[in-house]
Amino acid sequence: MKFKTLSKAPKRRAVTVKDIKESPQSIRLTELGILPGVSIMVMQKSPLGNTMYVKLKSSRIALRKDEAEQVLICEPD
Amino acid sequence: MITTTIESTQTQSIAIVGNPNSGKSSLFNRLTGMRQKTGNYPGVTVDKKTGRFNISDKRFKVTDLPGSYSIFPNTMDEKITTRIILETLEDDDESPCYIYVADVTRLEKQILLFTQLLSLQLPVILCLNMADRMDGMHARRIENIFRKKFSVPVVALSAKTGEGIDRLKQILSEYNLEDFRPEPDPFFDPGDQFLFTDTRADERTNFGGPVKYADFVKRILSEDGYPFRDRMLSSNEAIAKSQRIQEQIRDTMHRYAILDPFIQHITSETQPTASKTDSLDHILTHKIWGPTIFIGLMLLIFQAIFAWSQYPMEWIETGFGQLSHFIDRHLPSGWITDLLTEGILAGIGGVVIFIPQIAILFFLIGILEQTGYMTRVVFMMDSSLRRFGMNGRSVVALVSGGACAIPAIMSTRNIAGWKERLITIMVTPLISCSARIPVYAILIAMVVPYKTIGGIFNLQGLAFGLMYFLGGFMALVVGWVMKKIIKTGTDSFLMLEMPDYTWPDWKTILITVYHKVKTFVTEAGKIIFIISIILWFMASYGPPERMAKANLEAETQAMERGLNGEETAVLASTYRIENSYAGIMGQAIEPIIRPIGFDWKIGIALITSFAAREVFVGTMATIYSIDSEDNTSGLRERMSQATYVDTGKKVYTPATIWSLLVFYAFAMQCMSTLAVVRKETNSWKWPFIQFVYLTLLAYFSSFIIYHILS
Questions:
Q1: Do B383 and A46 touch (CB under 8 A)?
Q2: Strand boundaries in B337-431, DSSP class E
Q3: Residue A47: which of B106, B380, B386 has the nearest Cβ?
Q4: Which residue range(s) make up the domain with B246?
Q5: Average pLDDT over residues B682-703
Q6: Is B456 found in the same domain as B430?
Q7: What is the mean pLDDT of residues B153-161?
Q8: Do B248 and A27 make contact, defined as CB atoms within 8 angstroms?
Q9: Taking CA B227 as the corner, what is the angle to CA B225 and CA B232, rounded to the nearest 5 degrees?
Q10: Cβ contact B495–A29 (<8 Å)
Q11: Reading across the β-sheet that carries B58-64, which strands appear in turn?
């Protein structure tokens, strides 16, 4: 098991949210359903790479890089 | 507690709450039809939509609260929703009944705010929208599960097709707030360790007994209405802040922990058409194809506002022209007729002329928003425009600003961050709009030869392109500068939910277009109308003795030169405008504009073109005694022959013409734009700042250009 932030997650591979860092952004992240234990997948990165588009079970969310950095993930290796 | 008594004659108020994209607005339109109005919430420019409807003899007043994910706000829209919910909680007389709209295909997230309303012990009717995606039996089954779980009235409905609306109305007509008793709340767990560790708690929780969720919420919100966004914190405050973040996260996670198994259980059968959206997004948000398709769409929008609006705009122009002709012929000539035709009618015409562009733009934006494409635009453009203090949605304003700044600035309403929205509003007038085209055309023809180079590029065409580039470039520069200057205490967020692609709800789009046009005409239109009458007065009237002398002089001149009646009239109008109040002002500002190469005649045109930039050409035609404003080659010739009386030098040197071009590219010469900015920012402060900065920018840029070239 490797730990890193969601901003570094590979594209189109399901990873599991491990934890959310404590920050003003983290509240909205949890409200949008990005919670520990949830499965998440990076679908697309914006042309300049500063924004990403992730998919949860039934919803899609656009995140900025600094927002994705608040999410710790673990990916099965 | 709720103590409102409702007699049959009284109006019951309803508030519609739900996530953005839950179909709230469609439901609102279904219930109210055209009996609705759009206003502002006090102090902010968030649309306040209210409407009325009756069910048999029971009357309802309904407010569509801005879309919100949670009671803890992140955007201005959400702050309003939270504020209103908390206010009505304290005010017993005003308590509404809440209709909570949730998209049944995305229940996991859409139900969080609903549980918060339950914890606040509010009377809620739950509407499960998009029932058209399920069969009837399944819908009823889900309804029952929810009803049992939460003990609230539940309706599965489709705001789009209208199915289930009658059942909602049935529930509303039977609903009696008096009978409402809050159920025990499984969601809020006051916890222990953090809740009462700071002093703020004491003053707010003197109720005794168990902690109420309302107190918990209020304690987490800071003075500005957001949860702890303040950046400057002492160490004590930092600890308190960190505790509150933890409390809030704990609360949210607790809610999800309860909801999750329950929702798992029912959603397995209501999966949305996810794969379709995924494959569309594979192309529409692709690194290369995404932006390419988007630019294509933007060009289409630009073309639409620019070209499609031509016909209706021409009809409006000829219509008003003929009407004023008609009045002219049938009323005795005099100042009342003049006021009616050239003042009032022209003023109304100047407002109505914008309607086609506004309607077309908002129709197209409506489609982009409703299909879900707009959120993809924000996703793709966010990082590039953020460098310039703007937001992905700003692109729409910047592109449509190329046709006209009025609808473009009105379109900034759905930019969530105030700072990003403000910067977009401030820079949009720098994009060269269609009213500048006639001005550019006449000036470029005077200074750039009509020559083709390299087989394809026409020099004049290149000069046009340069003017457009100049405006766009300056808009980004100013955006970048303003991003550094304007300070806000709040962080900017993206964290945007991207809905499934769907077909637009045409009725909702048409209602939006109607309301956009209506608010423009009634609010900005008033200011435009008044200023255009003032401008008409200034250009037609002057000090009486000066005007009499001017008329006399024109007649003597005409006699000496043996002019016919028509030529005399043209000459007389030249003398009149030179001696009108506008003429006098033009002469008064000559010392100021001489350093950038303009004479007082240009000064007059600068003043009159405040009505609309293209008026420049008409004013110049009057000043240089050209019989018709369409005779541009005649006007160009007269202008290029013009000399200064004192020095005998030519007025329109290349330096002056380029200086004038740059001035028209940058200067804020459009009262209609200022009127719309006043309306959209809800203050005179921002249009004033915009006017000053653009005028200074134009002046100094022209100054530099003039001195480099002369």
A1: yes
A2: none
A3: B380
A4: 195-267
A5: 95
A6: yes
A7: 89
A8: yes
A9: 95
A10: yes
A11: B36-40, B47-55, B58-64, B11-18, B97-103, B124-129, B154-156
Q: HEC string of B236-275? A: HHHHHHHHHHHHHHHHHHHHHHHHHHHHHHHHCCCCCCHH
Nearest-by-Cβ selection for B70 from A25, A31, A61: A31
Kindly determine whether residue B271 and residue A62, on different chains, have CB atoms separated by under 8 Å: no
Q: What is the mean pLDDT of residues B74-94?
A: 82
What is the average per-residue pLDDT within B356-370? 89
CA distance B540 to B268: 74
- Phi-psi category of B642—alpha, beta or left, where left has phi over 0 and alpha has psi -120 to 50? beta
Smallest CA–CA distance from B495 into chain A, residue: A63
Are A31 and B267 an interchain contact pair (Cβ–Cβ within 8 Å)? no
* Complex ipTM: 0.92
Going by pLDDT thresholds of 50, 70 and 90, the confidence category of residue B505 is: confident
User: For residue B589, what pLDDT band results from cuts at 50, 70 and 90?
Assistant: very high
Cβ–Cβ of A35/B256 closer than 8 Å?
yes
The answer to whether residue B210 scores a pLDDT higher than 70 is no
Among the candidates B485, B515, B543, a domain finishes at B485
pLDDT of residue B384: 86
Q: How many domains does chain B have?
A: 4
Do B263 and B288 reside in the same domain of the chain?
Answer: no
Of A56, A58, A61, the CB nearest to B271: A58
Q: What is the pLDDT of residues A11-50, one digit of tens each?
A: 888 899 998 888 777 888 888 888 888 889 998 888 777 8
For an interface test with A, the pick among B393, B496, B501 (most A C-beta atoms closer than 10 Å) comes out as B496
Nearest to A62 among B246, B267, B494 (CB): B494
